[in-house]
non-specific serine/threonine protein kinase (Schizosaccharomyces cryophilus), 503 residues
Amino acid sequence: MSSLIAKQSANLDTSKQVADEIDECEATDIDEEGKSDNKEDKECMHNVPEQDREEMEEIISTFDGLENQYNLVEKIGEGTFSSVYKAEDLKYYDYINDWDIDSKARTKQPESETSNDRTEIGTMKREAKYVAIKKIYATSSPMRILNELEILYLLRGMDTIAPLITALRNEDQVLLVLPYYQHTDFRQFYSTFSYKDISVYFRCLFEALAACESLQIMHRDIKPSNFLFNVERKHGVLVDFGLAERCSRPLPNSCPCASRDSAEVARESYKDYEPALGYVKNDTRPSKRANRAGTRGFRAPEVLLKCPAQNTIIDVWSAGVILLSFLTKRFPMFNSKDDVDALMEIACIFGKNEMRQVAALHGCTFETNVNTLTEKRVNFRKLILWASCGSASIYKEKLMHKPSFEESLCLDFLERCLELDCNKRITACEAMAHDFMYLDDPTHQFSFQRETSFEKPETDSPMENDSTEMTQHFSRILKDEENEPSTQDMSVLKRKRPSVDNT
Ligand SMILES: Nc1ncnc2c1ncn2[C@@H]1O[C@H](COP(=O)(O)OP(=O)(O)OP(=O)(O)O)[C@@H](O)[C@H]1O
């Protein structure tokens, strides 16, 4: 076994470190070998499914000496490219652990307490410390693994990005060791968060995105399960840079969106376009190729339209989709099975007109014979109220009220994140200056001006055109929920699509 990245050596005042880590509540004995006597872990191991236990035993047997460093406790995640295990770090106290933000937060305690603790070092009970071990499947290419390692290295030192502690390799097996973050499953809080809570969530997320943006790194897989949010600590950490990529300077003619002039022409050109029905049988045009990596439902329009000039702004769109889930109280928001479906879901909200425009921006055409799509976009406030109110009468009542300051601010931020045109979308750094990020900060001076005039909207029909399939679909959801709240299908836009000949 070889260590790809050496742990920082332990030549510091270890005693101070140890003293700083004391937490009486979670105290755990550690014997001379360094193994903890954590009863919870032992009980946990009994509950570990047979298959997971076998996997963990295999990892231990593959990596010589691993068992002296880490005690694998349970499997905590399984993705397309890796499995993730929670493990106790048996050598924690031998190393400088700058990555440990929990302990850092705790060391901010009064001097008198820490000096008292220091005197008890020899005899004290040490708290068990955990890491997350990510086992990358051997099918991943070495270049992909190296890319993840390099990007994690570049992004080190951020409180909102999970840093790499170390990495281990044995032949084709690679383990990444990351801090373990106690977090809350998104499904447990997304429908109950207040605007202030949502603001805190997004400030952490955008802090991480702004750091990526300043280094021109696209994460490519922004979604709730990759942003580990701890509700109690009100802190989140971005993980999983397995698909991350460094932006390359786009060639000006690689896509109309890549240069200001051609983007302007493209934005206008779609108006004159006359769609030709059918498709070219012997199409000799070169196929359009671009990185489309990501998770369905979170891909930005430019990714779906195979834009070769993608940049960090794709992650802002994905963050916008998460925000839409918070506000509509629907997760997942989109549930497409392929890219065409995904574009249709987006078109349900933005309407055909804007879809044609964004397609032209990336050198494509958008045409569909799905006659239930509207030309114009759906108003975000109406969509959110409709999806989140639970009953048509509450929806109507809320719609009649002027949005609160918090709601207006949040809607403004949502619109800026979910901007179809990637050149007009808010950047992560700009987002950090948006007032929405500071809703919970009593010292923040707000400059956001909400519209003073408020026209009571027509409430007979929730959307512009009540005859569309989408409106009927939304209405059905509302009706169902009025009678009996449905927990079966939380995805607003999940619906059967009529057969499409030409999209
Ligand atoms: N540092 C960590 N602390 C706690 N849990 C973690 C940590 N890293 C990952 N996890 C858990 O493991 C899951 C999978 O991790 P990760 O996203 O890195 O793997 P993946 O194979 O790329 O998954 P996917 O294909 O779903 O994106 C996460 O959703 C999370 O629940």
About this structure: Residues 332 and 491 are 5 Å apart (CA to CA). The pocket of adenosine-5'-triphosphate is lined by residues 76-77, 79-82, 84, 132, 134, 162, 178-181, 221, 225-226, 228, 239-240, 242 (CB under 6 Å). DSSP finds 17 helices and twelve strands in the chain.
